[in-house]
Amino acid sequence: MKFIKYYLAPRLVQYILVTFLGLSAAFFLPRILPMDPVKQQLAQYQAFGVYIPPEQLEEIVSTLQQLYGLEGSLSEQYMSFWKRLFRGDFGPSLARYPTPVMKVIAQSLPWTFGLLLLTTILSWVVAVIVGGIAGYYRGRWTEILDAIVMVIRPIPYYIMSLLCLILFAYLFPIFPLSGGIGVGIELSFSWETVKSIVEHGALPALTLLIVGIAWQFQSMKLIVQGVRSEDYVWYAKVAGIEEQRIVFHYVIPNAMLPMITQLGLQFGTIFSGALVTEMVFAYPGVGWILYDAVMRGDYNLIMGITCISVLAVTTSIFLLDLIYPLFDPRVRYR
Amino acid sequence: MKKLGSLFRDLTKDFRFTIAFVILLALLFLAILSFFSPYHPQRMYQVPRGRPPSWEHPLGTNWLGQDVFWQLTFAVRNSLLIAVITSLISRIIAIFVGMVAGYRGGLVDRILMIIGDTTMVLPSLVVLIVVSTILREWVRHLTNLGLLLAFFSWAWDARVIRSQILSLREREFTFVAILSGMRTTKLVLKQYLPHVLPVILTTLINNMSWAIGMEITLAYLGLGIDPTVPTIGTMLQTAIYRQALFLRLWWWLLTPIITSILLFIALYWLSVVVSEYLDPRTRFQRIGLR
Amino acid sequence: MEKLIEVTNLTKIFSIGTLLFKDKFAAVEEVSFYIRPAEIFTLAGESGCGKTTTAKIILGFEEQTEGEIFFEEKSMASWKRKSAEFLQKVQAVFQNPFESFNPLRTVDDIFLETVYNFQMAQDKNRATELIDDKLKAVGLSFQEIYGRYPSELSGGQLQRASIARALITNPSLLVADEPVSMVDASLRMSIVNLFTKLRDTMKLSILYITHDLATAYYLSDRIAIMFRGNIVEMGPSEEVLMKPKHPYTQLLRDSIPEADPHKKWKGKIAVFDSEYEEYLREGCKFAGRCPVVMEKCKKEIPREVLVDGILVKCHQYSGKVK
Questions:
Q1: Which residue of C has its CA nearest to B198?
Q2: Fewer Cβ atoms within 10 Å of its own Cβ: the N or the C terminal residue of chain B?
Q3: pLDDT tens digits, one per residue of B37-58
Q4: In whole angstroms, how far apart are CA A64 and each of A70, A74, A92?
Q5: The pTM is what?
Q6: Contact C114 B180 (CB under 8 A)
Q7: Which CATH superfamily is domain B67-286 in?
Q8: What ipTM was estimated for this complex?
């Protein structure tokens, strides 16, 4: 009961608060800014030479307003925004009219989700283990690893994916250039489908893995170096516990705690990075959809993706907060 | 001055610093060169197109008839400019917010931190895209983009500064300072700032890296700066868009990529060296090794 | 003036917990005492008994939940907290000399600050002279500290510098929170002697806070023993320390080891309640450890009574009111 009181409740409140603020910001941002999407749309029509008879102008304007969710006063819009949010209704996608935005997002979400989940977990686990060992022991190979990470780490997702693209899909065409699955292959559990998915997903996954491991390896190593000099490690050594046990049962579990918290803080970045990678590889996840939406001026879709992204990130952080006590007994037994 | 000299010598003992410093110096040199460019950065077809590197055109020319080398000088200048603007503005905001939140505490602190947390948690890329799409005209200007990017990067530092201030506030020398009659603002600025500056320096460099990365990403999407204005991002984007790869004009594509990688590595190594130097724990390691 | 500073029914309640749920405990409870001019008054007790909190409240770093403070027989409401008038007369010295100075600034920096903020001198020369004066009084000189960072000086030098800084404004009350516990033995005596000298020559009153009864006995005129936020015994130090009445004071006195190898330590080890529980206890807070505890003690808070001129808070005496 204490646990819920002191740990769960404040985080739940924070989660709801931040999500609420984030979504409200998403709502207000376009409305505060001095651009009117309706006017922009109308201007575009005129630029294309479309003739709009003046009697129909009002109707068109109000239809557009409905489409964009801009009708009524600000507070009315705000209310309807939230109402529709709960229903999952973001309106129709303007570029793929009349497919509802939600459907478009729902189709692309699994791709992103799969990619992200797999690479995040994998890179975190690898980084924790390798970083833990590297941070604890010293040796030639740790310095080599260090040097490699030194060069890789500062490279942002975009450049890294470009590099992977050029290297492994262009110069040495091992992997396909783009897409999530081969053209014409149906989604089923056949070997062909799976093989195609893996082939296409390999490069984006590779990019995310490389960048992710580089970042987290370095953090873990630093943390472990700090933990290594703690008194309880020294005490364990003096008590005669063998080093391997010390590393895996004392040092790494303690170092994992700040790593988990860090992971939560990095979610925004990792998510954005995944989106960028998808854009480069034309991988059919949320990132690619977003890119497409931007190119085609699909306002509703952009809004929808923004809201879903905010939700995704805050929820992931909250879930991580829930898992944290499994690793940190101090929180459990308070 | 003497102190700076010995500081410099100390730092150069680390090869990472030397390399990073050299790279940055070279890039700075390029940026300054841009003022002497014989070609206008935005005009096209000033030179024969698609020529490989030669004496006349050290990095070749691109398909739009521009000299790649001189384009690069402008690109470096503009990208560095964005980076500096972003990081300076965000540091100032962070210092202000962090100090107020840390020293005042209470409701002000809570509100500021919640606002900061929200900016951190939101996937910055997505929001940047949204804003850039809607504010297309406004974002075209360098300074405005810098401002926008700064909006997303102050929160982390503000938190760090705040927690430092929180602990400094409880230390005995704070009490002594109050007993010595120091007023709040003066106390915070004179007594706390020296403690806070080292961290800020490190994050400033990191922030510059991030800002350039963001600029590049936004340019790829066709958002952000006016694409005819050369920055590392727009150079890259134009090269890709104009099929540099298929035209086999590899120098056009590689220049921005390699420059950006060098820039990122240099900035990163610089920040690592600086933070290691300032961290009292690693200082002992270095002294021991020498 | 009869009482330089008087504290009545001072109470400070802290709450711990999160936004939604809180627990409360009283760090300082109904504490009352006064200090006369040119008097050294000791507040003694084990760690965590509330003495530092009391000092912080007096200095204005914490707000009391209840109770009044009168300085120079005027209520604190009329002095503005942390105002120049108040701070000129009340200064403090803290336990850790290395913490008392900002490690990133030179030592003389804070001296100059004090001088200028209280307008004790107009120009640098006069200021330096003034500072040098005070430093000489504690056995240092301006040369020694000028341009030096705290890490370049020893603990003894820093602590003396601390005292010198506190004396710049010629205060009438010095709050000294464990000023000698982090200083080595020889220096300890010289600082303690310095305090005595200051009381006699400058008519300085000192609120001496400590857990070390030996220096307390040597130094102070009157003493109050605190336990878990309450004053359990108070009076002239000779009386209180030589003939303690409250079981806690007796316990304290008995725990001072004597340097005689033939006298064995006869104390029994008892397991105490946690600090947290002791603070939240109803009735007398000492009931968990008291060797002569009665049933009454666990339920009722003892009243304070005067026994032979000594204030005691214990059920043993609350029957015999004089």
A1: C104
A2: N
A3: 777 777 777 777 777 777 777 7
A4: 8, 16, 11
A5: 0.75
A6: yes
A7: MetI-like (1.10.3720.10)
A8: 0.81
